[in-house]
Amino acid sequence: MSITKKITLETPIQGGKEEIAEIILRKPSAGDLRGIGLSALLQLDVIAISRVLPRISTPILTEAEIAKMDVVDFAQIGGEIAAFLLTKAERATYLSE
What we know:
Elements: E1 4-15, E2 18-26, H1 38-42, H2 46-56, E3 57-58, H3 63-68, H4 71-84, H5 88-96
Antiparallel strand pairs: 1-2, 2-3
């Protein structure tokens, strides 16, 4: 079973002929993270997030679509990707604070 998270964008982006208002993120596998440093994702590095996002998003986002994304939405997505990398105990601690 794959873990997913639905993100509703505050500012929808134009994806080809359609407007993208929601993105579903799938918890990445180790293969999805090839060439990307885990510490970069945990630090919300823009380049790292931009590289992994098309690999785990539905719809699959292009580089141009990611570049047009509102910074608030991009930060929210980055936070969700980083949260996927936490253990259950770390998530529990984080949520209780």
